[in-house]
Amino acid sequence: MVSKKTHSQKIILELYQEFHDPKYLEWDPLFIARRFQGHQDIELISLISALFAFGGVKQILASVERVLLALQSEHPSLVQFLILEPDENKLTQELLRRLRGFRHRIYIDRDLVMLLLLYRNSWMKYGSLENHFLVHHSVQSSSIAEGLSGIVSDYRLWVQESSFKPGTYFKHMLNSPEQKSACKRWVMFLKWMVREDDGIDLGLWRTSGKIRTDQLVIPIDTHLFKISKELKLTSRKTANWLTAIEVTEKLKKLDPVDPTRFDFSLCRYGMAQYRRVKTLNR
Predict the structure, then answer these.
(1) Read out DSSP for 13-29?
(2) Helix H or strand E encompassing 271
(3) Which of 63, 172, 156, 171 is nearest to 118 (CA)?
(4) Model's pTM, two decimal places?
(5) How many helices (H) and strands (E) does the chain have?
(6) What pLDDT digit, counting tens, does each position of 105-118 carry?
(7) d(CA 188, CA 248)
(8) Across-strand partners of 107?
(9) Contact 133, 147 (CB under 8 A)
(10) Which residue ranges make up each domain of the chain?
């Protein structure tokens, strides 16, 4: 017997039909990464785009473009530029030289250099960022929490052990489910990597088959939290990890296999509403 859909579920499906469309990518941090489809650097560009994804979209995209311009080199890819230099100190100084003066909101040039060094470590120790994640992730887990907590824990340890120190706010880049943080930017990056390439998400990590789409968690921020409350997806007071899990579980009633597919359309709807309100208030 097919269960009758609630009013909220009908709205979510209608929004999905209207907004789950690549034409809305110009409003999304994924916009630049999609340009690099098939390129070795797409994963790293996606990671930078995701972790810088706060503030206005134009500002996010401009910051990522500045990074790519600053890091152009004789190597065919940025990943090769990072992993082929055997001397980490020399690489660090070169990265600092190229990125000197860079700023994206609370993050400065040293924060970006630290992120690039951590990404390099994942490749040097495990062969890829995906392999690093899978060291901590289990296909039997209910979500990506263990894998994400593990990789963030490793990164924090590597930062402590490094002689190079990032800026004051770099710690905010390494939020973890263990802290009950919603980890919006990290779970968004994982969604991009794991969901199939449907013209929006990238599906770069699908070949291993070791991360299921039903293990993904909805990337929840202030705007999506507000929409989730309006659609009765959560009754919680704050947007934290438990809220993200609750919203994801509610979305599983619509799609138990791929609940985070509704993220893009809900966010685009929220942005459209925000723009309408902003226009009316002028």
Answers:
(1) HHHHHHH-SGGGGGGST
(2) helix 263-280
(3) 156
(4) 0.94
(5) 13, 2
(6) 999 999 999 999 99
(7) 13
(8) 104
(9) yes
(10) 7-280
